[in-house]
Design brief:
The protein has five domains: 3-196, P-loop containing nucleotide triphosphate hydrolases (Rossmann fold); 204-387, Rossmann fold; 407-515, Winged helix-like DNA-binding domain superfamily/Winged helix DNA-binding domain (Arc Repressor Mutant, subunit A); 533-608, HRDC domain (DNA polymerase, domain 1); 637-748, no CATH class. The protein contains 31 helices and 21 strands. The chain has a seven-stranded parallel beta sheet, with helices on both faces. β10, α11 (263-274) and β11 (280-283) form a beta-alpha-beta unit. The protein starts with a helix and ends in a 5-residue tail after the last helix.
Length: 749
């Protein structure tokens, strides 16, 4: 029986889909294969048909129990004897599977990668005639893939242990060129036939909707498509639960699925959806692998996924029958923050220490790609395909963006202003600092960094933040700017040479958003705007303490103290009862329950950060919310300086703390109406001189000398706080003190 006859007899198909026949022939001829085929293109047939043609048994390594069970059930229904081994079976059942496989009853045996190193499986494999090992979801073997699983590395050891090397085939739906190379190398594929059938799913219509009321959008969409089956993906269990309550309360036939549910409840929900007892399922990304439901008419992503690989795989569960289906991503800026939080808490168990930073960089880059997808005004289908290496010249005319009426705005001058701002930052700061500077935001962090003194501060105050985000996204896409791919990504200069040509224009496509038209963008100050970098760090510490207390008490965190109260603590830094009772939201009862623990946390922070400034308020530094021009004309205060005679009053000491230098400078200046000098101002100056820098120590930013600073005599002194905490402070010799004094003396400006 040949391949086509096998296809017809067991699967009922008269012909192969694109790529299938080529893959099957290569495997039947004994060649290794690496195949990248989108969801719904028939990957499983590519190894199931050869398994029937080859003499021995085929071992299929699969990551999910549900996938194994569904595949095996379908194969047995088709008349192909197959089995699986996973944790859902008893030891007695597993022994029976081994016996059947050893007797040649099974042609295909599915196993989890963890099973490969067990004694029972190794004993079986040592005696069995294994013709082929197939690795499904092969991207899981790549540390640079979006879903790396350390257990997949055991596959290579297993194959190496076999007395006779079988044919090795690997399949995945989504893999960039880099990941494909990684798969081939790690699996030690021998001159593999690499087949990429193309990533385009022409029947899928992609759309991105920037909506603020996501619940209303979802409810309205389902009401307009009452007879259609769909999946709604959410980033968190909380979102799944709340959306489930909303839809079920509105009478929608809906199920839910996430890891917080019991196995029985998850299985029941999955079956209800598969067997059309419910039309809609709301789930986290734990749902979907191996689910072969052909009539899913829509996939809605309630939150932006962490990577294009994840998005395309999940969206691809729509329209597996080839019928037109919708893939809608509901985007909000908060999605980026949620995903950053999830990535920061990613489990790196079993990952080599030296690889963790690089993986974090890849994760951050993937998140940038997804944000770019959500913000692009270009063809959405082409954006996806180009990410996976398929270059397209013409738009698809069949996605949400191609169907919108866009207006092109010439933002060339604005683009040059953005580039000038990035030049002023010297590539040291991220997107939020650049945006805040251009908009002239009144934030302590901008004052702390000194960007309020930039020529570009407030230069684009007449633009909305969303317009500037769109512009910067396009500048990055066009290569004029570059965004680093690390946890604290910064915006740097790219190739701006083309902009020197007066005929070069930056045209930004935008469309009228009805919802945005009805809701004015808020320019009111946020409560955190007065916090410096250190203030944010203290805020984070207090939130962790609040969470710990909430878990102890079995209460929601906001019941302990609101964010507003914690922010006020960061501003007032209370270290005794009277001070904390002066914090907004702290009464006698709350103080009696929690006050001492928060006071201690503040004390620890202040003692380990002796020169810290946690907030800068308008009464400290007069900064108008709109523009630096207004700062200079509405405020009488000017940046700190010394008159020439003041410098002679400075008393030099062998080694000084920054706080001691700061206090002396503030006390000796005779200049009128100057702003108060902060320790952070001096530290920033020393950073620009190349003498000091901040480094991560135990997850915290701590000051350190550079090699140049060490050569200049900057020392480090270890101290122990009253609470027993060890911390390090820098001390500065007379030579450095003199450079600081000269910098602030007016003649030196």
């Amino acid at each position: 029986m040949d391949a086509k006859e096998t296809l017809k007899q067991y699967f009922g198909y008269d012909s192969f889909k694109p790529g299938q026949e080529e893959i099957i022939k290569s495997l039947a001829d004994g060649k290794d294969v690496l195949a990248i085929m989108p969801t719904g293109s028939g990957k499983s047939i590519c190894y199931q048909v050869p398994a029937m043609l080859l003499p021995g048994i085929t071992i299929v390594i699969s990551p999910l129990i549900s996938l194994m069970q569904d595949q095996v059930k379908a194969l047995n229904e088709a008349g192909i004897h197959a089995g699986y081994i996973n944790s859902s079976l008893t030891e007695r059942q597993i022994s029976k599977v081994y016996a059947n496989a050893s007797e040649g009853i099974y042609k295909i045996l599915y196993v989890a990668p963890e099973r490969l190193e067990t004694n029972g499986f190794l004993n079986f494999a040592g005696k069995a005639d294994i013709s082929m090992v197939t690795v499904d979801e092969a991207h899981c073997i790549s540390q640079w893939g979006q879903d790396f699983r350390p257990s997949y590395l055991k596959i290579v050891d297993f194959i190496d242990r076999l007395s006779k090397r079988p044919i090795v085939s690997a399949f995945t739906a989504t893999a960039t060129a880099e990941v494909r190379t990684d798969i081939a190398c790690v699996l030690k594929l021998q001159a593999p036939k690499v087949v990429v059938t193309g990533f385009d799913r022409e029947n899928l219509i992609f759309d991105v909707e920037a909506v603020k009321r996501k619940d209303s959008y979802v409810l309205e969409y389902i009401r307009k498509h009452p007879d259609e089956s769909g999946i709604i993906y959410c980033a968190t269990r909380k979102n799944v639960d709340s959306l489930f309550e909303l839809l079920s309360g509105a009478g929608v036939s809906v199920a839910k699925y996430h890891a917080g549910m019991s196995n029985e409840d998850r299985k029941a929900s999955q079956n209800d959806f598969i067997y059309d007892r419910t039309s809609v399922i709301i789930a986290t990304n734990a749902f979907g692998m191996g689910i072969d439901k052909s009539n899913v008419r829509f996939v809605i992503h309630y939150n932006m996924p962490q990577s294009m690989e994840n998005y395309y795989q999940e969206a691809g569960r729509a329209g597996r029958d080839g019928e037109t289906s919708s893939c809608i991503l509901l985007f909000s800026a908060q999605d980026i923050m949620i995903n950053k939080f999830l990535l920061e808490h990613k489990d790196f168990t079993d990952i080599p220490e030296e690889d963790i930073d690089l993986i974090k960089q890849r994760d951050a880059k993937r998140l940038q790609v997804m944000e770019g997808y959500c913000r692009t005004s270009g063809c959405l289908r082409n954006y996806i395909l180009e990410y996976f290496g398929e270059k397209r010249s013409a738009p698809c005319n069949n996605c949400g963006n191609c169907g919108r009426e866009f207006t092109e705005i010439d933002m060339t001058q604005d683009a040059k202003t953005v580039i000038n701002c990035v030049w002023e930052t010297k590539g040291r700061y991220g997107l939020n600092i650049v945006l805040g500077t251009l908009l002239g935001a009144n934030r302590a962090r901008l004052k702390e960094l000194g960007t309020v003194n930039y020529k570009t501060y407030g230069a684009l105050k007449n633009r909305s933040e969303s317009e500037l985000r769109l512009l910067i996204s396009q500048l990055i896409s066009d290569g004029y700017l570059y965004q680093s791919a690390d946890k604290y990504s910064v915006i740097r200069m790219g190739d701006i040479a083309p902009l020197k040509d007066p005929n070069t224009h930056v045209l930004v496509r935008t469309y009228k958003d009805e919802e945005a038209e009805n809701q004015k963008e808020s320019h009111s100050r946020r409560s955190t705007d007065s916090l410096t970098k250190a203030g944010y760090e203290l805020f984070g510490n207090l939130r962790q303490l609040r969470l710990a207390i909430a878990r102890e008490e079995g209460l929601p965190p906001y019941i302990i103290f609101s964010d507003k109260t914690l922010i006020d603590m960061c501003i007032k830094t209370p270290t005794d009862k009277n001070a904390i009772l002066n914090v907004s939201g702290v009464g006698e009862a709350k103080y009696a329950k929690y006050g001492d623990r928060f006071i201690e946390a503040v004390k620890v922070f202040l003692e380990t950060h002796p020169d810290v400034v946690t907030s800068i308020r308008d009464e400290d530094v007069a900064v108008d919310a709109n523009t630096m021009h207004q700062i200079k004309h509405k405020s009488n205060k000017v940046p700190f300086f010394l008159n020439p005679g003041d410098a002679e009053k400075y008393e030099y000491k062998d080694l000084c703390l920054i706080s001691e230098i700061r206090d002396q400078l503030n006390s000796i200046t005779t200049a009128d109406n100057v702003k108060h000098l902060f320790g952070t101002d001096i530290f920033r100056l020393l950073t620009e001189m190349g003498y000091v820098e901040e480094r991560k120590v135990d997850g915290r930013d701590m000051p350190n000398q550079t090699d140049l600073g060490l050569s200049k005599g900057i020392g480090a002194v270890e101290k122990i706080s009253k609470l027993g905490n060890t911390y390090t402070v820098l001390v500065y010799p007379p030579e450095i003190q003199k450079e600081i004094v000269e910098h602030y003396t007016r003649e030196g400006h």
